[in-house]
What does this fold into?
Amino acid sequence: MSAFRHSARVYWEDTDAGGIVFYANYLKFMERARTEWLSALGFDLAQVEREHGIAFAVHRADIEYRAPARLSDRLDVGVSLIDAGRARFSVDQDVRRGDTTLVHARITLACLETEAWRPARIPAPLAERLDALRSKRL
Amino acid sequence: MSAFRHSARVYWEDTDAGGIVFYANYLKFMERARTEWLSALGFDLAQVEREHGIAFAVHRADIEYRAPARLSDRLDVGVSLIDAGRARFSVDQDVRRGDTTLVHARITLACLETEAWRPARIPAPLAERLDALRSKRL
Amino acid sequence: MSAFRHSARVYWEDTDAGGIVFYANYLKFMERARTEWLSALGFDLAQVEREHGIAFAVHRADIEYRAPARLSDRLDVGVSLIDAGRARFSVDQDVRRGDTTLVHARITLACLETEAWRPARIPAPLAERLDALRSKRL
Amino acid sequence: MSAFRHSARVYWEDTDAGGIVFYANYLKFMERARTEWLSALGFDLAQVEREHGIAFAVHRADIEYRAPARLSDRLDVGVSLIDAGRARFSVDQDVRRGDTTLVHARITLACLETEAWRPARIPAPLAERLDALRSKRL
It folds into this structure.
């Protein structure tokens, strides 16, 4: 699968007293990968917010935890576009250690204008890139 | 609905540069509420782990983010048992500010023995409490 | 000592794979206590920022870690004003479990205007409250 | 200065509603750099804990916050050994963005055996590496 992939390492901050990564922290790894993916597409989130007054907020996250990651593990995190509309897009994300998928998630993000946190259209240049990506998949 | 409810306040640590609570941090609020709920049922997680060598790990989390929480907000977080089996149970959780539901989630937890992180039976006293709770709902 | 005290409980999110609270997370407990202390003095930080365009940023933190906190521990966190100037104030903070001080810190906060993050005078009503507190100590 | 340096990027998870990195989160960046530094010296912390039953806990942290980091910033974090004894060592750490030092800290770490969290001698191979490093500085 032609997913964008971003590497992450497990540090003390990520683990909990069970000796494994705390379940909320995989969402940090997944957010980092989405940020780097958008950055690789030419869209720096901080800049997009300054220029367009919009941000992307997670609207849904459906997460399956299959196996735990541990201290010092080297992970890589994938992002793969599933669907893109006028004000939303969805991605598949996985967190892998080697060939093992530890966590899989389907994430839907909504484009919001940051004044009132109301839905907004995805800025045209990004919408076009997402459209092109989606077409390539089909 | 007869949910157990636990209060939380939004501090700087919970927010992000968007001015709202970072999406992963609602999972912390929900975990705190589950811990307090089990504690109210008579099961302290640290003690359960020492005595029974088991812990509860999230297996699935399906989360819908409806509206953002902000700095200083007073939230309350609900836990409501949906289903309980031999080695798993599921809860509905919501994060509310006053009458507004900000986040809703369905969480499935698996009982694991903490040596090898393999599935284990829920310790009998807790299984009985969960069974009793579930029956009351029906 | 006439410190303001705020209670905190240790949840999974706070711990690390060493089985103890991760060292950075005590700074979260201390920030919560400072927020509640200012709130008890009549100053809600979110409101102060909206009304005065200022925020308090930590300028120095000198922290001594004496003993670890663990999962499910009930802690209480103290705040005691040490010094207050025009644009800064310092507090002593401790994190205790029962009679045991686990962490002690001296924290200096700077008042900054949030547009350019430049030093600003502490708003008069708060400056007066801090002055009164400091005098009481002397 | 011959510091070990490790890069970090600021993601949403690191920021707070002030639009800057939350003060506790610089301690995460500094911990990551210490872990990578020890790893570069040949000591993987997870492995050291398994083999020697010891871990390094922060005993003191004296931190000066000079300027804030923001979303998307590319930082680099330094570690420079200051002193090493039988059961403790101290490092200077800085967090820089380009030529600007944002945060400077002096951190003392204690070697603890992880059963009872009591002081322990630094394992000989690591003690020798730290000694060699310290001599090179003098």
Summary: The longest strand of chain D covers residues 100-113. The mean pLDDT of chain D is 94. The helical segments of chain D are 25-40, 45-52, 124-137. The longest helix of chain D spans residues 25-40.
